[in-house]
Amino acid sequence: MNVQNIMTNLEAKHPGESEYLQAVREVLESIEEVYNKHPEFEKAKIVERLVEPDRIFTFRVTWVDRNGEVQTNLGYRVQYNAALGAYKGGLRFHPKVNVSMLKFLGFEQIFKNSLTMLPLGGGKGGSDFDPVGKTDEEIMRFCQAFMYELWRNIGPDQDSPAGDVGVGGREIGYMYGMYKKLAREHSTGALTGKSYGWGGSLIRPEATGFGAIYYVERMVKEKGDKMEGKRIALSGFGNVAWGAAIKASELGAKVVAISGPDGVCEIADGITKEMIDYMLDMRASNRNKVQDMADKFPGKAKFTAGKKAWSVKCDIACPCAFQNEMAEEDAKELIANGVKYVAEVSNMGCQPGAIATLQGAKIPFGPGKAVNAGGVATSGLEICQNAEHRNWTAEEVDKNLHTIMNNIYDMCVEYGKQADGTINYVKGANIAGFMRVAKAMLAQGII
Ligand code: GLU
Questions:
Q1: CA nearest 73: which of 4, 25, 145?
Q2: CB neighbour class for 171 (10 Å; exposed up to 12, middle 13-18, buried from 19)
Q3: For 221-360, where are the E strands, in sequence order?
Q4: CB of 340 within 8 A of CB of 52?
Q5: pLDDT tens for residues 374-407?
Q6: CA-CA distance, 428 to 424, in Å (whole number)?
Q7: Residues within a 6 A CB radius of ligand 1
């Protein structure tokens, strides 16, 4: 494989799909050396096949808003690769959603799901529907209309969507209700992230954040350091940041920043339980404003408009919101302020320049596909529980999640250890994730 040739072809074939091209380049650059030691991969054109999704569904979603006006959005499902199992990955509702964004997310999902060691293929979907400012009824009507179109193409052994940005327990509930009505299938893993009591798994809401902090804890221990007393800056205030805040606080670290599209809230003494609980209200309000935290807790949280979480002095920085949310300048500011570790919890949260800057400064950097894999891993555990018609206890789920994250961490070290003794977690995650998929594709023939 020659990465530059492949990228030149892809750029010509998919012009303007910048996020997709960025994600592919990062993976190919990491695996190039190992790949070229396997002529059988080259012969079977593994990479050329892997970079193109198996199929993409695009559909119109029409619904009626609170004023009785007809609205039309676009819906998508990218079924990327099923070498390891049925397609699996979230749905994102955000006005910027397009094919490039979902292809990048679906591509990342293949390797992330592979790292979990569960039988999960990779997929992603979503819509350009904007939940901000919508009423609960509008969200329900949209979710129903979306599922009315998608339901035939999903199922527990076919493709199992879950949440992502803009899609949480409420949206999954509305979509699952519609799915069951149409498919007449009950208590299945056709969707994950369901609520506990009707097929959902305990710990699934917390899982992405918990898993991320389990991974960060290992990065910190690797340096002979400890979590206790560490100042952590999180971006966003959604489900992922919420779970990370709970686990980080439990381990004695201090969450000193959360952020939103409107700015950052600095929490000098560390986030409290009441504030963590309030994050859920902020998400349910559909306002998408982090300033609400400062208004609710005036003495504790200080809001600054237009600033990112990376402007707050911290030991550990965790992007938890959106792709490319940390730029090279942000990485430089973090380093100048003494950051010791950076772990991407959002998918592709850091721009290539930010990653290169952090790695150049020898700051351990954990990539999203490893750090945030706890979410989809626990979705995999939800599918197991649905298939068994049984609910596991919270302890059982958490124990499995912790084991999976430890295993992912170990694989990243195994494949990412450098000659100078440092660990390139990006390389480790990409190689470990890729090898499992490539071997499966090879064994399953040219299809
Ligand atoms: N959207 C999450 C992710 O990026 C979860 C996917 C899932 O649970 O299927 O991995």
A1: 145
A2: buried
A3: 231-234, 254-260, 263-266, 302-305, 316-318, 341-343
A4: no
A5: 999 999 999 999 999 999 999 999 999 999 999 9
A6: 6
A7: 88-90, 112, 162, 164, 192, 347, 372, 375-376, 379
